[in-house]
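In practice, a research group might receive sequence data for several interacting partners and want a quick structural hypothesis before committing to experiments. The following worked case mirrors that situation: the sequences arrive first, and a predicted assembly follows.
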Amino acid sequence: MVRRMLPIILAVALVALATPAADKFTLKSVNVDLPAGERMFPDGPGADVANDNCLACHSAGMVLNQPALPKAVWESEVDKMRNVYKAPVDDKNVDVIVHYLINIKGTN
Amino acid sequence: MRRVPPTRVLMLRRCFLRTAGAATVALASQPALADAIVELSLPGGPNERPITRGFPEKGALILQRTRPPLLETPFEAFDQSVLTPNDQFYVRWHWSVIPTQIDVGSFRLAVHGHVEKSLSLSLDEVLALPQVELVAVNQCSGNSRGYFQPRVPGAQWSNGAMGNARWTGVRLMDVLDRAGVKAGAVQVRFNGLDEPMVAEAPDFMKSLDVDHARDGEVMIAYAMNGKQLPLVNGFPLRLVVPGWYSTYWIKMLNDIEVLNQPDTNYWMKTAYTIPDTPHASIEPGQTGIKFVPISRMLPRSFITNIKSGDTLRAGAPTLARGIAFGGDVGVSRVEFSSDGGKSWQEAQLGTDEGKYSFRQWQIRFSLPNAGNHRLMVRCTNSSGEAQPNTPNWNPAGFMRNVIEQAAVVVA
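A structural hypothesis for the assembly, expressed as tokens:
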């Protein structure tokens, strides 16, 4: 059995040697799931508005991992989300969100 | 389930609903997103971050943000090898609409704009071009942002928004030459498959000057450390811009546009700009400063086997080791101080994997006297530039490269 297979094994080994395996790179298709991040903002005045307006584009951790920041910084962040990143936040909700952020992450 | 008013959903991309649906399934069938907590040491905190194993093709990473993913490499990984393992390589996305299915048969890389002939290359056609390989550090512009004082908004990274890999791929120059860059070309713009949730938001695109793009070093990688890229690191193709910050290393690269005028898109003109000052440093609140696009990296070095708070034995021979990189050039020398910077000794350097790579270093030392001591490490690159004694500051938290310290107790 072994003797009969030997020529085949040798032939396979020779083919393998003749092919520069290192040079030929192949890619395989990928199909995965990414976690969504279901965490909500902690309770407090304006938390519902923050949940409704912020979490469509990013998970809450982005905000909750921020240090305490001055009011002007939070105002400019909310302004950037609306005017640069085009988050559909109504005018009436801007102050609510800024106050919520100052409440959980303000410097004073 | 989060509540999003129907009117808002209509204004957002359809993918949001698909993402949310898929994620619910994923959460139900996967192990918990967080299996442990890591404690960072950012001034003023918050310092607790979950360690996540919840991302596909990835191992244990520090969870900075789930969506779009911001995943940091645990610092211990840098002590274990000069190449950062793919499954622990950090991840940073700007927009949350990220394709989760990539079919290698139908994927195409477009090359168009100010060229003789537009191309639509299959992956087979890309792989058929001459193969090149390079070891290079990929570091986020905002790596170590969490240490800025005063603190600044953004991803609150510790020092693990960087990694070093052996990249395999093709020269960008070879791809551009197949299309034939026309005279008058100024920049080359790169775009990936990721998209913002709101269609009107600025798509994430970055540009390089045409001479840089054709320098023969900038590459389109299809493998890192010998394997195809994890999806969240940019599968199937990622731009590699050796020596430059990661913002230029476009992931899931599928579009290359040759421009006959400078790129003024938001991500070049406004975002990722730095003060045009030494070390990109200004005083908090300083105005009237000219800002320019971020570009080359600076030298950095880290102690990887001893951390602040560790206790060392008085008089015992001790090994300090770590990694260094020169930025956009190689490492010339790494010096170590065990007396808070009063005196410096040159460390022994490990194998040279090329000028864009991490370089391991090590040194033996001993501290005879009990008490508090500060260990420091300083890299000088081959252009003669050394890490500074004082930290830089800028409003975006970019380009930190101050000399690192570890406060240890000798007993």
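Before designing any experiment, note the following. Chain A touches chain B through 41 residues (CB under 8 Å). The domain at 47-105 of chain A is CATH 1.10.760.10 (Cytochrome Bc1 Complex; Chain D, domain 2).
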